[in-house]
Amino acid sequence: MPRDVPSERRSWVLRRRAVLRRPQLSLLFATLCCPTLAISIVFLCWGYWHMLAYALLEMTALAACLGYYGRHLDDYDRIDISEDGIVIEQRSGHRCSYRHLDLWSTRLLSPRRDGDPVRLNDRQHRTVELGRFLGAEERRHLAYELNQCLRRPGA
To answer: What is the dihedral of CA 82, 10, 149, 72, to 10 degrees?
Structure first.
């Protein structure tokens, strides 16, 4: 039984909400490291050289954390539904993946818990999780809209 597919293309772009951008990350790193480095240099002048080693270790850990945050600033999920099928593009860090699901055999799986992402499953048992960046209410809204596009008439 054919579905009632809208003739126009439906699209969603789900982006990660980031408070800081890349230039601000550099400024934050400098702001946090300068006092630590200044205090460790004072202790170095008094002969406590190991304080400089601890300061460098602290700055390395901070750089790793901010680097991880910066790498995932541009993460997104893009969903395109047309008569040809469902195309899902997901970016996480430096990895970008593309999935093409058949429109007629794809179904929306109900979440196991309230905080779980929206999941789509097709005939080949490929499951795609969407909406990792959204809150619970926004995920429910996304699931409702996807369900409207995937709904069978009379079902």
So the answer is: 110
Conformation bin of residue 90: beta by default, left when phi > 0, alpha when psi is -120 to 50? beta
Q: Once rounded to an integer, what is the mean pLDDT over residues 59-69?
A: 95
The first and second tokens of residue 39, run together, are 């205090």
Angle at 24 between CA 21 and CA 28, to 5 degrees: 135
Structural domain boundaries of the chain? 10-16+75-150, 22-71
DSSP conformational letter for 40: H
Q: What is the CB neighbour count within 10 angstroms for residue 77?
A: 24
What pLDDT shows up at residue 151? 67
